[in-house]
Every structure is written in C-alpha cells, then in structure tokens.
C-alpha cells in the first residue's frame, strides 16, 4: 500500500509540474512510454533519464530555484492539488525534503524521490 501511494504521489507531482512543459522535458531527456510503464511497476531508484526529466520539470515550474533549493510553498501546492495525503504523510515528506542537499545535478534528485516514496513511513 505504501509504495502505491508513494508512486501516485510522485506521478501526480510530475504531471502537475509538467502540465505545460512536459513535452519539452520528455523530449530533452528521452523519456518514453516504456519509462512510464517501468515507473508504474515500481522502482526504488530513478533511471538517469527520469531523474533528469524530474529535475527539468521542477526547475521549469519554479519548484526548484536557481540554487537547487526546494520552494516548499510551490511544492506543497502541487501536493495539495493532486494527491490526498494525510497530515502525517505531508509532514514526513516535508521533513525529509528539508534534509536534502540542493539539487544541482540529475543524480541529486534521488533523495527527493526517496522522500516521496517513503512519505508514509
């Protein structure tokens, strides 16, 4: 159950962020339908192209600033609009996200992803 909720959270975040820019970031990072199918099955580590896609999406919509820091107001707005999380899950995700280093490279997105995946623990 936790993984399904976490996967839903991640997918909803990506879809919300990418409503306008999705096509550009998908093309730029060669994200295919097969990549999305892999995500639906559940993965514990993002492949490089999906990590780069997510970083691109978060930057384009201002969730990540120029220094790679998370804009929590923007982030929480997406969460509130797209996924129904308990207060505990929101708190867990935010507390975890506050501990990660700035996201400057695609591989830096992995800790953010893990915070989302593990938000219900």
Secondary-structure blueprint:
Blueprint: H1 2-17, H2 22-28, H3 33-41, H4 48-60, H5 72-82, H6 87-97, H7 109-117
Helix pairs in contact: 1-5, 2-4, 6-7
How would you describe what is shown here?
With 121 residues, this protein is mainly α. The protein has a single domain (2-117), classed as Recoverin, domain 1 (Orthogonal Bundle), CATH 1.10.238.20. 63% of the residues lie in helices and 0% in strands. It is built from seven helices and no strands. It has helices at residues 2-17, 22-28, 33-41, 48-60, 72-82, 87-97, 109-117. The longest helix has 16 residues, at 2-17. The chain is globular. The mean pLDDT is 81.
Largest sheet: none
Tell me the total number of β-strands: 0
Unreliable sequence segments? none
Structural class: mainly alpha
CATH superfamily: Pheromone/general odorant binding protein domain
Which percent range fits the helix content? 55-70%
Average pLDDT, all residues: 81
The CATH first-level class comes to: Mainly Alpha
Shape: globular
Please indicate the percent range of residues in DSSP E strands (runs of 2 or more): under 5%
Task: Kindly give the count of domains.
Answer: 1
> What is the tally of helical segments?
7
CATH topology assignment: Recoverin, domain 1
> How far is it from the N-terminal to the C-terminal residue, by CA?
11 Å
Could you spell the SSE succession in H and E letters?
Answer: HHHHHHH
Task: Please give the radius of gyration in angstroms.
Answer: 13 Å
CATH architecture: Orthogonal Bundle
